[in-house]
Amino acid sequence: MIDWLSALFSLLIFPGFAFLFLCALTFQWIDRLVVARLQGRVGPPWYQPLADFIKLLAKEDVLPIGAHELACAALPMVSLAAVLTAALYIPVGTHSAPSFEGDLIVVLFLLSIPSLAYFLAGWLSGSVFSVIGGNRSLLQYFSYEVPFLMALSGPAILSGSWSIAQITAQQSHAPWIALVQPLGFFLALTGLIGKLKRSPFDIPKAKSEIGAGPLTEFSGRKLALWQLSLHIKTAVGIFLLVNVFLGGASIGLPAPAVLVFGIKALLVLLVLSLVDVLYARLRIDQLVNLGWRVLAPLALVQVLVVILIGVG
Amino acid sequence: MSRITIPIGPQHPALKEPLSLKLVAEGERIVESALRIGYAHRGLERIFQNRNYVQNVHVVERVCGICSHVHTTAYCQGVEALLGLEVPPRALYLRTLLCELERIHSHLLWLGVLAEHIGFTTIFMYAWRDREIVLDIMEELSGGRVAHAVNVIGGVRIDIDPEYAHSILARFDDLERQIEVFLGVILHERTFQVRTHGIGRLTAEQVRRYCVVGPVARASGIDVDMRRDAPYAAYDQLDFRVIVAHEGDVWARTMVRTMESVESLQMCRQLLHAMPEGPLAVRAPRRVPPGEVVSRCEAPRGELVYYIRSDGSDRPARVKVRTPTLPALAALSEQLQDINIADVPTVLAGVDLCIACADR
B54: domain CATH number? Predict the structure, then answer.
C-alpha cells in the first residue's frame, strides 16, 4: 500500500507531473523576464505563463479541413508523455531517480520523440506553412542530434557508466565534467538549443517566414499541450545537462542539495536566454552546414580525446 | 521535387501593410513569384481634386503613415511655386529639420522591421525604443508623432525657441550613441551578416532599368539623392555626404540607411545651430493661377514626385503622386528569383516597401 502510494506520489507530484509543470512555468517566466529586461522591456508578471496556459485551455479547438484529426489530437499527448517519462529517470536534487545501466540512452531517445511528433504534426495538420516547418524541423533534428548525442557520450565514457545517476555520483568526488570537457559541454548546450528550437535555431517556427511552423494550425487545448510539452522539455533538458555536466546537486560545500541544483539549472537557463538575445536566426541550410561541418567534427574530436586520453 | 504555392499576404506576419505575393517553391527554393497590389487604395488622387489647396495639405499628410511630412513638403513647395511665393528662410529650415527627423525615424523603424524578420528580436526592440527619442522630439515640436501638420502653403506653423533647441541637441547625443551600437552590430555580428549578405541583390544595371531610387539605389552604387542633386528647402545650405555602397544586397542597404541616419543627425545639428530669424510663413492667396508644376523631394525611401496642375480655381485640376515604392515593387520579382523561403521576409524588408504610399 505504501509502495503503491509513493509510486503514485512520484508520478503525479514529485518529481512527476506537478513538479515539472511548476518548473516549466517558472523557467518560462524567468526566461521571458530575462530576455525582456535585456531587450529593454518590462517583461511579464510571474503568473503570465499560467494565465497563458489556462487561456489556451479555454479557447476554441479547431483544425482545418484536410488535417488528420486523430493524429493531431494524439501527437501533443505523445510528446508530453515522452518528456514526462524522460523526466522520471533524471535525478533532481536529492531525489534519486529509478536508475539502471543505460538510462541515459533511454532518456535521449525519449527526448527525441517530441521532435518527431512535432514533425508529424506539421506534416498532418494540413497547411503549407506547417509542412515547410515540419520539413525544417526534421532537417534541424538531423543537424543537432548527432553532435548532441556524441557530446553526451563523452561523460558516459569517462565515467564508465551509461546511467545518469552514476555519472552524477562520480562528479561528487571529482571535478565537474563541464570543466574537464568544456568542448563537450558547449556542444551539448548548442545541441540543447537546437532541440528546444530556441533562437538562433528557432528555424522550424520562424514567425516572419512560416507563421508558427508545424503548430500553425493548432489551437486551444492541443496548442496548450504542445506548449506545455515543449516547456517541460526545456526543464528536462536543463536538468539533464546539470546532472551530466555540472555534477547534479553536489558542489563540494555543505549546502542544501535542492538549492544547489536549482541554482545550477537557473544558470544554464540564463545562458540559453542570453544566447536567445544575442543572435539573429540562422537559415536552415546554414544550420545544416554548422551542424555537419563544425559541430559534428568537434564532437568527434571530443569523444576521441576522451577515449584516447581517458580524462578528456 | 513537388511544387508548393505559398501565399504571402494580404495578411502575413512578415508584412506590416497589405500586399499579396504568391510564391511557388520547390523545396525551400522560390521558382516563381507573382505580386498583387492595391489593397490599400483609398482614391486619394481623386479626393485631392475635390478639396481646395489648403484642405489638401491635410489629405496629402495622410498618404503615408511614416513619411507624412515629406509628402506635405513636396505638395506645399509645388503649390508655392505655382503661386510664386517666396517662403521665409526660417520656415525652410524648420521644414528641413522635420524632414531629417522623419528620415531618422523611418530608417530606425525599418532597421527594427528587418531585424525582426531575420529573427534578431533584440535589435528590433532597441531600434524601436531609440526611435521614440525622435518621435518625442517631433511630438513636442508639432503635437503629432506621425502626422505633424507642420507645413502650410507659404511656410510652417510651428516655431522653436533656443532653449528647446538645446534640449533637442542634448538628446541627439544619446541617439547617436545608440545608432553607433547598431552600426557595430551590422559590421561585426556574424549571424546578422550571414542572413543579409548577398540577399536581394540588385546590380546597378537592374536599378537603372527599374528606375529604383533612394537607399536601395544608393546601396547598388547609383549615386542619386534629391537633397544634393536638386536641392529644395534648406538643403543647399547644408553640408552632408550622400552615402553610397556597392554590394547591392540587403546588408549594403542596412549600412546605407544606418549611416544616413547618422548623417541626418549631423544635418539636424547644423539646422538647429544656423536657424535664421524671421517670419514663419507668408500669406498665400486661395486661388492658384493656371499652370503646372513638378515638385521633387527625397523621401526616406527615395525620390518622391508631385505633379500639380492648376486651372485657376481654388482646387487643383490634378495632383499626381509618384512614390519611391513603386519601382521598388517592380524590382521585387528580380530579387525573389531563386532564393530560399527563409530569405523572402529579408528581401521584402530590404527594399523598405511603403504600401500605403504606393497604393494611395
Answer: 1.10.645.10
State the pLDDT at residue B199: 86
Residue in A41, A136, A209 closest to B14 by CB: A209
- Cα–Cα distance measured from residue A160 to residue A169, given in angstroms and rounded to the nearest whole number: 12
**What's the number of domains chain A is made of?**
1
Confidence at residue A35, expressed as pLDDT on a 0 to 100 scale = 92
The predicted pLDDT at position A96 comes to: 65
- State residue A312's pLDDT score: 44
According to DSSP, residue A198 is labeled -
CB contact under 8 A, B4 and A131: yes
Residue B195 lies in a domain: yes
A167 vs A157: CA distance, rounded Å:
9
Residues comprising chain B, all counted: 360
Band of pLDDT at residue A97, cut at 50, 70 and 90: low
With an 8 Å Cβ cutoff, are B191 and A281 in contact?
yes
* Cα–Cα–Cα angle for A194, A230, A97, rounded to 5 degrees: 95
The ipTM, to two decimals, is: 0.82
Helix (H) or strand (E) holding B151: strand B151-152
Q: Is A93's pLDDT higher than 80?
A: no
The amino acid present at A73, given as its one-letter code, is A
Task: Provide the domain limits for residue B84.
Answer: 40-359
Those residues whose C-beta lies under 8 Å from the C-beta of residue B17, and which sit 6 or more positions away, are B40, B353, B354, B355, B356
Q: How many CB atoms lie within 10 A of CB B338?
A: 8
Of A128, A136, A284, the CB nearest to B4: A128
Cis peptide before B290, with omega less than 30 degrees from 0?
A: no
CA distances from B25 to A202, B4, B338 (A): 21, 5, 9
CA distance linking residue A274 with residue A181, whole number of Å: 22
Q: Give CA–CA dist B261/B93, Å, rounded.
A: 18
pLDDT tens digit sequence for A284-309: 888 888 888 888 899 888 888 888 88
User: Does an H or E element contain B24, and which?
Assistant: strand B20-26
What is the average pLDDT across B136-164? 87
**Domains of chain B: total:** 1
In A182-309, which residue ranges form alpha helices assigned H by DSSP?
Answer: 182-196, 207-210, 220-245, 257-278, 284-289, 296-309
Task: Give the other-Cβ count within 10 Å of B192's Cβ.
Answer: 21
Task: Give A207's contacts in chain B (Cβ within 8 Å).
Answer: 13
Considering only CB atoms, A40 lies closest to which of B25, B116, B125, namely: B125
Residue A66 pLDDT grade (very low, low, confident, very high; cuts 50, 70, 90)? confident
Residue pairs spanning A and B at CB distance below 8 A: 81
Domain extent for A139 = 2-309
pTM equals: 0.86
Give the pLDDT score at B86: 86
